[in-house]
Amino acid sequence: GDVLLPAPQSISILSTNMKHFLTWSPVIVQGATVRYSVELQGEYERDHANGSWIPSSECAPTTATACNVTDDIAASVAYRLRVRAELGAARSPWATTEGFFNRVTTSLTPPVLRVLADGHHLLVELADMGPAFQFQLLYWRKGQENRVQQKVVREVSSVLHLDTMEAGAEYCVKAQAHVEAINRSSSFSPTQCVRAQGGTSLWL
Amino acid sequence: KLFHFGACRVSLSMTEIRAGFTAIKANIQSRDPVRTLSILSHPHSLHKVKSPDRCCVTHHLFTFYVDKVFKHCKTEDSFVNRKISSIANSFLSARRKLGQCREQNNCVCGEESTEKFKQILANYEGLNVTSAAMKSLGELDILLDWMEKSR
Amino acid sequence: SGELYCSLPNPRNVHFESINMRNVLRWSAPEGTGDGVLYKVKYAVYGIGKWIRKPECRNINRTWCDLSSETSDYEEQYYASVKAFLNGTCSDWMETTRFNPLTDTKIDPPMVSVSSTDKSISIILTAPEKWKRRPEEESISLLQVYPGLQYNVSVLNKKTKKRWFFSISNNTLVVPWLEPGTAYCVSAQIHVTTPVLDSGFSKEHCIATLKDK
């Protein structure tokens, strides 16, 4: 006869830098491989489509106990998510997230920045954080903190030219990540300073 | 990005809506065999909407899509359905901003624009609901292209 | 409509090929037909009832037809269709998908001109022009069609092999404080955010900074 499958427990959503994962505890059935299916319900489905649910793109089904729902949550509205266990024809009840999840609550980490001096040229390298991200760079000549300049970078290319520096002067740079879709920014990365040629090169 | 719809200044992220539509455009438009009719662009073109009326017309159009279009666009393709769901949910959050802006700025539709929107509804009612909804969804780029001119 | 009984295989892969809004209808000959196939072309504005014949593409043996003039209003969308004829028989009309000139065109890289002094290079970028019917017509830069247009510029120091990228909105860039007597190679790309349209990178334009006086 069919196995009575319990619903997955301790389901929760982890969201960092606009990457969203639903996780849950495994349902153990000795000697069997349990699979899981994940579904999502946005505000539109709840309020305008009779409370329907949309199967996730990655986990319909999966044997993992985590599901990347980043591509499924492509709007800044409140979503509910649910998961159930499957074994053969047996289906567990759905386990649904307690509250709602809106991607505006994703936690944003400062970008990984590397500042270089090449002669008189101030250069930066930024680690790619994904298509949703752009970067705001603030830079200034040390000692002229009141004349901070800003540059918005939409695409990460290898070495980005920020500005030219006066001989021997020291310049400092810091960066924050910005997500236009949720209109939020990370905190700033630690400041890094470099010195232009024509003086002792101090690269931190 | 900042959009100027008449008196309204609204920050909207249309990139994901545009990307979602581009991903399903060929599929959706292939389900609309009627070349001779358009919901949004004929006989009246959106491009003739006067600037002051853009806020109200845009809000009307977002409501039109949320209330009348998306729900009749279910397909047998789960990828397409997911993209439609993302677009629909993005429309909801954009409409909310438009609605707030419309209230704050008391944007009203002029007579001409009201007439234009009535024509859009008439175009929609002129087809059976599934064809009308699929055609409207297939014309999303007409709406997006028009909105982009308001940036 | 008095059409012959059409048993000829259909033209294949009927599609618009668009570069800088020069919109050319292209297709492949029907399978298994050698020479002698002739074609005729019609087009329609989406949302408007009637097909319009293209006289210059009637009974042609080539497999393309320039419809740039007919599809130059990029606030409209279009369909086009092709029919083949051979030895008294014909094919069906074969249609394109819906064509949106604004989003379905490809953009050429910008023109790059570079000059140098002993310690700097100056770069001037020119966005391609929108296709126009006659040379004497007023030019429309794609910058006017896509207001959010930006440039990505790559500058390669041929000696050190180091490559820097610049992201700029205006069309001029001066890179000072360079090494005298050194070759630098510049190439540039156009980047449009919405709709998402990127040109390729232009070919490299190399120039040497003057030797130190």
From TrEMBL, chain B:
Cross-referenced PROSITE patterns: PROKAR_LIPOPROTEIN (PS51257)
**Which molecular-function annotation in GO is an example for this chain?**
cytokine activity
For this record, an example GO cellular component is: extracellular space
Q: Which InterPro entries match?
A: 4_helix_cytokine-like_core, IL-10/19/20/24/26, IL-24
The organism's place on the tree of life at top rank: Eukaryota
**What keywords sit in the KW lines?**
Cytokine, Disulfide bond, Secreted, Signal
Annotated localization: Secreted
- Record's Pfam families? IL10
The protein's predominant localisation is secreted
**Cysteines engaged in disulfide bonds, as pairs:** C8-C101, C55-C107, C56-C109
Family statement: Belongs to the IL-10 family.
Under the heading PANTHER family, the entry gives: INTERLEUKIN-19, INTERLEUKIN-19-RELATED
Q: What is the stated purpose of this protein?
A: Immune regulatory cytokine.
- What protein name is recorded for this chain? Interleukin family protein
Native source organism of the sequence:
Notiomystis cincta
